[in-house]
């Protein structure tokens, strides 16, 4: 989808992008070879040609940060297919504000394997920083409001300078609202462990407190499994939401908005 995106061009909005598509100019290459584009002055087109050549070079070199100030945050989903194999899904758990406001678990999933870092056991900010440097796209659920600010406040240099796709916001663009569990149900995504399926927002903090109070690793295992299923289920959500948003962009309705 990113190669079909004209929102990266200065001054281009959704309505203009749709008009470009409706002229049969479906991607950057079509735009570059077109002698003219209706609604865009010849001198302006030359300027846009140069911008598209830079964007094409950025993709060639896997330079995802190039698009951070080119794409509106709400349109970051358009990068997903291109950078899917170099994306990382992230989810954290915390103690909660009333008990010290600390990160207890960091879960990462690269589409193949999951990694869990646990406070006081194997969590290391430098190791997390080095791991995150491997990726070109960061994907969370409600991370713009919770996970990323939480990490930045405590470990300012950990997060990589790459685009961030917040699936909560992407889902909202399709009218799918609610927490992660509700959206999983809406999209028919199931959890492997029925006990974990029943856990809700405040339960991870309670599991951590029980583990710290009793030393019983059963509570820790439940917390780790809860986090792992959270972060691993983000991939099927991203796949489904990307497909639906892409289909909506190519709606047969004239000039239908894809935002």
- Helicity range of the residues? 40-55%
CATH topology of the largest domain: Nucleotidyltransferase, domain 5
Termini separation comes to 14 Å
Shape: elongated
Task: Tell me the strand order in the biggest sheet.
Answer: 3-2-1-4-5
Mean pLDDT: 91
CATH class placement of the largest domain = Alpha Beta
Number of helical runs?
12
What profile does the largest beta sheet have? 5 strands, mixed
- Contiguous low-pLDDT stretches (5 residues minimum) are 252-259
CATH superfamily of the largest domain: Ribonuclease H-like superfamily/Ribonuclease H
User: What percentage of amino acids are in beta strands?
Assistant: 5-15%
Sheet/helix structural class = alpha/beta
Give the SSE order as H and E letters. Answer: HHHHEEEHEHEHHHHHH
Number of strands: 5
Rounded to the nearest angstrom, the radius of gyration is 21 Å
Give the number of domains: 2
Assembly state of the chains shown? single chain
CATH architecture identity of the largest domain: 2-Layer Sandwich
